[in-house]
Amino acid sequence: MRTYFCGRYFRCQSDSQTLALIPAIHRAKGAQSCSIQLLTEEASQNVVFPAEAFRKGKNGTAIGDNCFGEEGISLHLHTDTLTAEGRLHFGPFTPLRYDIMGPFRYVPFMECRHSVFSMRHTVSGELQINGKCYAFRNGIGYCEGDRGRSFPKAYAWTQCSFSDGALMLSVADIPFGICNFTGVIGAILWKGKEYRLATYLGARAVRIKDGTIIVRQGAQQLTVQQLESAAAPLRAPLGGEMLRTIHEHAACRVYYHFQIGGATVFAMEAPNAALEFEYERNGESSRQVPPFTC
Description:
By secondary structure, the protein is mainly beta. It contains no helices and 22 strands. It has an 11-stranded antiparallel beta sheet with strand order 4-3-2-1-11-10-9-8-7-6-5, with no helix packed on it. Strands 12, 13, 14, 15, 16, 17, 18, 19, 20, 21 and 22 form an 11-stranded antiparallel beta sheet that branches. The protein is globular, with a radius of gyration of 18 Å.
């Protein structure tokens, strides 16, 4: 049985509330299990299930009595520290024009492959989580996924939905044989137009330091700056097992500035963006980022 993990990330936000749900299956050392992680502005919860609780169908996946798919989410979670019940309905998904990994999707030995299933869709319904109601009336959703062996050792990721579109950006240290490079994948929906930032299109992360990321690709530049810190711990794969602890800001203030040819396309302070910054705050990432090293 080869080392492997596969998970999906569903993010739902309204004007005042945000939550994320992460169903996953993982296997290593001859053992297999699955899990559901739930992240809100206040805290995170991780519920582990035996492997046989996982079921995959044409409309999505189920873990125990909990279902996840393009049409929505149904939750029936009960542990000593968590009670989560309810149903969310999704509108039609908005996929990207082509795979976010580009030609790297065909590389057979990458430790992690990323997918973006929907940059933006509507969310309606309610979840009761430990007595608190999360209500979505024409809310906004986002859905992505990861699969492989491990999350990158060092990476930064952010996602945000706003009135005129949505964006996601991931910058990561990618092992490539005996060498490594800083890989970039990102997508921006803005007023009906899709922009792609990616290593395979010439994108380069020129700065990753203390919650700030600057990516350039030809005449385009995206700046991401974290304005507050309130992260909650999440479990992440390491060699197929959920052994690593990362930290995600489910809804924090982040500044985004997108430019083309020096002209500002948009500049905004988002109050409820998601962000993970798994680079050392004052280490190697404080320098200019080399594109490829051995």
